Amino acid sequence: MVQKSKPPTAANEPERRGEPKRRGRPRAYEPEVALGKALDLFRKQGFAATSLDDLSEATGMNRPSLYGAFGDKRELYIKSYQRYREEARASMAAIFREEMPLRQRLERIFASALNIYLSGETGPRGCFTVVTAASEAVGDPDIRAMVLDGLAELDKAFASCFRRAREKGELPESADPAVLAQLASATVHSIAIRSRARVSRKDLEAIVKGAIDVMLEVKP
After folding, report:
1. Helices assigned H by DSSP within the chain
2. Rounded to a whole number, what is the distance in angstroms from the first to the last CA of the chain?
């Protein structure tokens, strides 16, 4: 009686020609999700107060995986800040781009900023740019350059708004878009700091209203 041969098992089956051999375990995390978790933690605690153990716990990744995906803590902080800039830019882009009266545009820009600054599961987180400017940007030239670029980008966006408004007659010819842009940016930074200190939204909105009134009552 002829015994039928059994098909080869996975253990002893030879590799098929042209089919790469799989090694190791598949990656069990999503980099973009992990980066978002790291960003949330850095915004809440800052760079110095956030340990690698904290980041491991927040992202669900051990240290070797963190290093492999993002580099050291400084590199992860930089990537987190870049992610923050991208998200903030995306949330404001339409407001800066659409056609609308200047007062309405400014009101919407500041309202959107407050939505960002007052967000957070455990309390208002403020502006990551402002937090970084007062901490890591002081001693790190690369991070300082990124912060300065962010500040300049906001000034430029506001200046464009005021320039268009002047062209449409909403502002007098004597209005200086660059100066008004700096005032608008300063208002953004002020409400960012105050929001992190848990000033109420009602009080922050009062500051915004007063600032807009001043910016729009430019005298020729």
Report:
1. 31-45, 52-59, 63-70, 73-97, 102-117, 128-133, 136-139, 141-167, 177-196, 201-216
2. 110
Calpha distance 64→211 (Å, rounded): 49
CA distance 100 to 77: 37
Torsion of CA 126, 132, 133, 137, to 10 degrees: 180
Cα(173)–Cα(65) distance, rounded to whole angstroms? 57
In tens, the pLDDT along 12-21 reads 444 444 444 4
Residue in 58, 28, 56, 31 with CA at minimum distance from that of residue 43 = 58
Residue 4 falls in which region: left (phi positive, over 0), alpha (psi -120 to 50) or beta: beta
Computed over every residue of the chain, the mean pLDDT equals: 87
Q: What angle do CA 96, 97, 102 make, to 5 degrees?
A: 55
CA distances from 57 to 60, 61, 62, 68 (A): 5, 7, 8, 16
Q: Which amino acid is at 127?
A: C
- pTM for the full model? 0.80
Residue with tokens 């209005």: 175
